[in-house]
Automatic annotation (TrEMBL):
Cofactor needs: [4Fe-4S] cluster
Positions bound to S-adenosyl-L-methionine: 164-165, 196, 219-221, 297
Catalysed conversion reaction: adenosine(2503) in 23S rRNA + 2 reduced [2Fe-2S]-[ferredoxin] + 2 S-adenosyl-L-methionine = 2-methyladenosine(2503) in 23S rRNA + 5'-deoxyadenosine + L-methionine + 2 oxidized [2Fe-2S]-[ferredoxin] + S-adenosyl-L-homocysteine; adenosine(37) in tRNA + 2 reduced [2Fe-2S]-[ferredoxin] + 2 S-adenosyl-L-methionine = 2-methyladenosine(37) in tRNA + 5'-deoxyadenosine + L-methionine + 2 oxidized [2Fe-2S]-[ferredoxin] + S-adenosyl-L-homocysteine
Any single Pfam family the record assigns to this protein: RlmN_N
Name this protein carries in UniProt: Probable dual-specificity RNA methyltransferase RlmN
Signal peptide interval: none
PROSITE patterns recorded: RADICAL_SAM
Gene Ontology biological-process entries: methylation
Keyword Repeat: no
Domain Radical SAM core: 98-336
Additional detail: Reaction proceeds by a ping-pong mechanism involving intermediate methylation of a conserved cysteine residue.
Length: 354
């Protein structure tokens, strides 16, 4: 049977696991340091950890359970990794370089059931959730890649925006965040971590009530129910008024800013009337909301959608600004490789099938 990854344990879980087997707390701290500070890839390298503890760990766990299957590097420094899981499934992880640091976009599920009509990832239905160890493993694989390059670079930001709906894998996502945030390990600041959801209202409330304290982004993509249901079928189950109520709860509870993601699709949701409607929807939330406009990366399978003209993007942005809505246009990364989320993975799967 395949062993699960030790990366899936939070520090408290590791302390408890070793404690149940008679090992004191400091042993867990030693192991944690070897995993996340010294970043060894074999338990046998944990030279100052008691041999019995090393034996126990290697008997029950693997360190990483991901194998690098493919890597695409863009001229702008973006790297797309395709990792193979122990069950043969492929997942995609992206490293992006920004002025403010290095961010990694992680995947939380194998496929996705939300079925947004513009998305390459959603073309393949969810076959399973990723374990916390498989999500942490993506960050560690990227960090080890940076370590090997020898420039002392460190992953500084994480966006949970890859394949899957993170709130549909809530417990594993929560463990993942607690592992990467831990100040004795990777120590990635809570303000440097963003989770993006398609709008699972109940989970937004649970997230607001949690002590994760990381950033939240909502995939909004349309300013009214009719259009949003057309683009995102999740809107049928959770319409905008329910979503906005959950957002209000989150804002009230956390007092933290929120990002509203808006993918611009030519002649679908990119007209001035849509920008005006969006400004109205943002309404009283203006001080705590930022709209992130995302120029669409076309994918072959969704030929009904095209990228908005540059004039439309500028006009949309200007309209929101004039309405007092804080907004930005997302900088693009890796346009010379398979830039759309999930594109590399779906291409590979198609090639292997076909
Ligand atoms: S955009 Fe996100 S939530 Fe929607 S189908 Fe794609 S991966 Fe799933």
């Amino acid at each position: 049977m395949n062993k699960s990854s030790v990366y899936g344990l939070t520090l408290n879980q590791l302390i408890a696991w070793l404690g149940e087997r008679g090992h004191k707390k400091f042993r867990a701290a030693q192991v944690w340091d070897w995993l996340y500070r010294k970043r060894v890839t074999d338990f046998a390298e944990m030279t100052d950890v008691h041999p019995e503890c090393v034996r126990l760990l290697s008997e029950h766990f693997a360190i990483s359970v991901l194998i690098e299957h493919l890597r695409q590097e863009s001229a702008d420094g973006t790297i797309k990794f395709l990792f193979k899981l122990t069950d043969g499934n492929l997942i995609e992880t992206v490293l992006m370089r920004h002025k403010f640091g290095l961010s990694v976009c992680v995947t939380t599920q194998v496929g996705c059931n939300i079925g947004c009509s513009f998305c390459a990832s959603g073309l393949l239905a969810k076959s399973r959730d990723l374990s916390a160890g498989e999500i942490v493993g993506q960050i560690m694989k990227v960090q080890l890649h940076l370590d090997q390059a020898g420039r002392g670079e460190k992953v500084s930001h994480i966006v949970v925006m890859g394949i899957g709906e993170p709130f549909d894998n809530f417990v594993n996502m929560t463990d993942f965040i607690n592992v990467v945030k831990d100040h004795k390990g990777l120590a990635i600041g809570a303000r440097h971590i963003t989770v993006s959801t398609s709008g699972l209202a109940g989970k937004i409330i649970e997230f607001a009530d949690s002590d994760l304290n990381v950033n939240l982004a909502i995939s909004l993509h349309a300013p009214n129910d009719e259009l949003r249901t057309r683009i995102m079928k999740i809107n049928r189950a959770i319409p905008l008024n329910q979503l906005m109520q959950a957002i209000d709860y989150y804002l009230e509870k956390t007092k933290r800013r929120i990002t509203l993601e808006y993918i611009l699709l030519k002649d679908v949701n990119d007209r001035t009337e849509h920008a005006l409607e969006l400004a109205e929807l943002v309404g009283h939330r203006r001080p705590l909301a930022n709209v992130n406009l995302i120029p669409y990366n076309p994918v072959d399978e969704h030929s009904q959608y095209q990228r908005s003209e540059q004039e439309s993007i500028t006009a949309f942005y200007d309209t929101l600004k004039k309405q007092g809505v804080s907004c930005s246009v997302r900088l693009e990364h890796g346009t010379d490789i398979d830039a759309a989320c999930g594109q590399l993975r779906s291409k590979q799967i198609k090639q292997s099938i076909g």
